[in-house]
Design brief:
3 helices; single chain; alpha+beta; 3-stranded mixed β-sheet
Length: about 180
C-alpha cells in the first residue's frame, strides 16, 4: 500500500506541475487563441458589458483619486495597450474584463467627458477609453474600494489605476496578485 500511495502522490504532483505550466503559458502569450481553463471565480465575474449608457466616475483610496465604473469598482489601464487599441483578449480579458458599452460613455463625478471615448475590440465590442487608454476591471476587485490589481504585471505588462487626468497611478499600496 505504501508504494501505491507514493506513486499516486507522484502522479498527482506531476499533474499539478503540468496544470501550473499550462496556466503560465496561457498568461505569457497574447491570449487571443488561448483555451486555458479559468477558475470558477472568473466564470462568475460581473459582466462589464452594458446595454444602456455606461458611466465612469471617481473614487478616492490609499493610491489617490482613480476612475471607477458605475458600480464603484476600480478601472485600470494596461501598459501593453497602444493608445486607443486594446490587445487584452482571451484569457487576459477573462481576468481583466474590459468596460464595454453599446452607446457613448457618460462622465460622472470628477471625470472629464471629453476624455471619454470608445475603441472597437477584436471581437467587435466597443470598449470604453479614457484619454485614449482602454479601461478594464480586475476579476478580484469584487467590491467598491478594492484595488487588488494595482501594480500587477499579469500577462506581461503593468496594470495601473487611472487618475482623473488620464495618467496611470504608478504608486501601489496594494499587494499585486499574480497568475
Amino acid at each position: 500500500m505504501g508504494s501505491f500511495n507514493k506513486a499516486k502522490m507522484r502522479v498527482g504532483g506531476l499533474a499539478g506541475v503540468v496544470a501550473v505550466a499550462l496556466v503560465v503559458a496561457a498568461c505569457g502569450g497574447s491570449g487571443s487563441g488561448s483555451s486555458a481553463s479559468v477558475s470558477s471565480a472568473a466564470k462568475s465575474a460581473p459582466v462589464s458589458s452594458a446595454t444602456g449608457k455606461v458611466s465612469v466616475g471617481t473614487a478616492t483610496g490609499s493610491d489617490g483619486k482613480y476612475l471607477v465604473g458605475a458600480d464603484g469598482r476600480a478601472l485600470y489601464l494596461w501598459v501593453a495597450d497602444g493608445t486607443g487599441k486594446s490587445v487584452c483578449a482571451g484569457a487576459c480579458a477573462k481576468f481583466w474584463p474590459p468596460l464595454t458599452t453599446q452607446s457613448a460613455p457618460v462622465a460622472a463625478n470628477g471625470v472629464t467627458g471629453s476624455q471619454l471615448g470608445t475603441t472597437t475590440r477584436s471581437d467587435g465590442a466597443k470598449q470604453v477609453t479614457y484619454d485614449g487608454h482602454p479601461l478594464y476591471y480586475f476579476l478580484e476587485d469584487t467590491a467598491k474600494g478594492s484595488v487588488k490589481g494595482q501594480g500587477s504585471d499579469n500577462f506581461g505588462a503593468k496594470w495601473w489605476l487611472v487618475a482623473p487626468s488620464g495618467t496611470a497611478i504608478t504608486k501601489s499600496s496594494a499587494v499585486p496578485t499574480g497568475y
